[in-house]
Amino acid sequence: MATKLFSIRNVINKPLNFLMNKVPQYQTSGYNLKKISTTSITYVNFFNKLPAEKLWKSVTSVSNAGAKKGRGKGAGRIRIRDLNRGQIIGIGKVNMLWPGLSAPVIRGRELLKQQRLPDDPERMEKLIKLRDSMTKFRRLRLSPIERGWSGSWMPGRSIGAPDPVGDEEFTGFDTKVLQLRSLLIMKGNLGRTRNYQAMVVTGNGQGLAGFGIGKAKEAPAALRKAKNRAGKKLMNFEIYNGHTVFHDFFTAFGKTKIYVQKQNEGYGLKCHRAIKEICQAIGIKDLRAKLEGSNNLQHIVKAFFIGLLQQRTHQQLAEEKKLHLVEFRAENENYPVVVASPSQVRTKEEIPKDETLDFIQYVMNDRVIFRRKKFPRFYETMPHYQIYLKKYEKFRNHEKIRLNLKVEYGEIKSFLNDKYPEEKEVKEA
Fold first, then answer.
1. Is 0.70 surpassed by the pTM of this model?
2. How many CB atoms lie within 10 A of CB 284?
3. How far is 351 from 344, CA to CA, in rounded Å?
4. How many C-alpha atoms does 38 have within 13 Å on its Cβ side?
5. Which positions ≥6 away from 326 have C-beta within 8 Å?
6. At what angle do helices 297-310 and 273-282 cross, to 10 degrees?
7. pLDDT in tens, 6-52
8. Strand runs (DSSP E) across 254-334, as ranges?
9. What angle do CA 178, 179, 184 make, to 5 degrees?
């Protein structure tokens, strides 16, 4: 150990001895550092090369491996809560350059110094926007027409027509989002990965409509895929009188059951919100649908489309039964109207006794909708209601009599018209 120390001392002393022998004035007056030329060596590292913003980001951010495992959820969202009303250290009213805060300490080989930059007239407006964006996380505001089923969530919102295919464009089409959800899939090499699944329906409101499902890593890509698939799988549906379905029907998919009822004009759409969006895409305006069983959204959509495709026109029903199809409507005072006639009509002898002749029971495949029991009104058990019924008894059948007169004679007339025919002529004049 002594020999090693001695050799190191000799190595250090050699250049000093050389200088002492070469320049004799160093021996008397010591070392004169002003006459020795030196070169500056800049010590560059991670901390003086980057500004404060990137340094803080390196401390608070999540690594790629951590992001894959689900760490740092919401890290991209700005959550700064500054006690100084959004002011950032290094940025103030005066446009100054602060090394280490608003700029790195060293830029290339140049050591930056504190200096005042030229004035910017739009600087304050930019600062206010920056502080507003940092102090509060504001969601995207939508007009009431553009909102979906629940605020600014995607389900229920419109995303426009599908992308054109070649030279053909989807003019008059509109696409509504029915479902947008994130799926977590576990993989061997990547671990837990997140995908998005979207389900949409598109239509022109005139009988053409279709639905599609799309999956992608990002939500906009999944919506675009679903929209374009729905545009490629359009189906044509016939609409009765331009406002409703041809008849009541029952449809099911999986454990989802739907009972659909035809309604008069002006009734509206009283059904599940997904079925309502489908009806608007097709052009159906009046409908009632009762949902039973599972409320899986994809099953609801598939079941409703299957039911619409299986419905038959009045002429097809008349040809199936080989009987006249007669309609009774309340707005026509239940006056019978023949809506379809077959090419060949069966006689009474050809109709078996056990055949279903009720129209609603036939189109519903002998299925019955469960209805709650109706209880009597509270006033029907009181004595004054019995008095009312006795007074009303002489008038209670007038509506039925009017209907029977229309059916038999085609008009409402008194039994005195046959006895006094001149009275009828006077009234007509």
1. no
2. 26
3. 13
4. 8
5. 336, 337, 338, 339
6. 40
7. 444 454 455 545 444 554 444 444 555 555 565 566 667 777 788 87
8. 256-262, 269-270, 287-293, 325-329
9. 170
